[in-house]
Amino acid sequence: MSGLLQEIASKALGLGTPLSVHLDITYRCNERCVHCYLDHQDHGELTTREIKNLLAQLAEAGVFFLTLSGGEILLRKDFFEILTYARRLTFCVKLKSNAIMIQEPEARRIRDLGVESIQVSIYSHRPEVHDGITKIQGSLKRSVDAIRFLKSYGLKVIIANVLMSQNRQDYPGVRALAAELGVECTLDPTVTPKMDGDRSVLSLNVDSASLEQVFRDQALFGNVSATCAPSTEPDDADMGSLPCSAGHTSCYISPYGDVYPCVQFPLPSGNIRSHRFLDIWQNSAQLKDVRSIRLRDLTSCSNCVHGSACTRCPGLAYLEGNMRGPSIQDCEKSFARTGVPSENLLSRKASAGSLVQIQGAS
Amino acid sequence: MSQNLYVVRSSAVAARKLGAEMLIMSGRDSTLFTLDEVATIIWESASGLVTLEEIIALKICPEYDVEHAVAVRDAETMAEELAKHGIMHISRGPIFDSEAPIGATR
Fold first, then answer.
1. 0.95 exceeded by pTM
2. B6-91 in CATH: which number?
3. Any idea where the domains of chain B sit in the sequence?
């Protein structure tokens, strides 16, 4: 995060302003990605009118960064009406799409509406791998063609590359493709549980050896020895720090109007069909609870050597059963990065060991 | 000496007030700006139909301890800087079309 952005986030935190909102306008999708965390059935999406009303409320609440995502955003017939309205309200709009419905006219319209950036998911540079993950034949070609259209109109495009067992060796190829297209590329080595708590998709996560390989890739991290250096013990300042921006300066809203701290933190905190957004943002007991959490309150994490540098996601911890607990996926990342097991991994190992002893004694 | 400029906000930017300051993201290159309290008042008043001099006289001088000529000069410098980034348009006459795309000449 740039210095100015950090300064702005800090000011927003002090003012209690929701600086960023991620709004999924649909969960429907024209791809069927094997790792997706969503239920693609429409269970009663917000109408055009409800979304416009919500956007007006978000602008009034001070939201600046608005991410429109899904599902596939272009499956909504009113997508451009929503986008036009959002830009009229002067949001800084970021889009997330698989882009397979974007051709030259759509790219031009998106450019004309002053969108800040568009993130497109690309899983591999090899069609058989990418299309195997999306379950749509020809999807890589269509997404890449769309990126070329968007680039030709001067739009900022970011390729999002989620790493999983199927494509664990392909990220250098995706990065090369991004370089050829002249776009940015981000890599996320985390497959997350489904929003309903189903953890079956976690079996798609890359193994620890692949994770270790990623963290030791100089092309990704530059100074690998600094990235992978063991963490320092958390100090008093770390103990009082906030886990992340979820619920503090940002939140997530589902296509059904449910407000959550973050898309990865599905703690129901209110619904905009029954309450005004600002009322939920300011008064939700759940959001207040999330805001009360500091590192010192976290069981095991507060005693962990990785406490100051861990990327612990409170949403993943929540999905594991305790938002004040550790997130095993982040423990594994800290371990892969540094070779030092977290407090949580050590205690799991210890309890697994004692279980074996009990079995042996019986 | 004042140039009696008309100014209008570009419609291609993102903008939101945070406290007394204005956050602005340039649509041209995603550069993020913050305007201080006085610059925010000028930004909010930049409708294209009033001059910078009028904005200073009506909105700034009554509220802040500043000489009119000095404030106009500072505001012109700010407007020219913002125009370079495509987030404000400047003209010697009234501007009726605030929807013109970034980079349009006037």
1. no
2. 3.90.930.60
3. 6-91
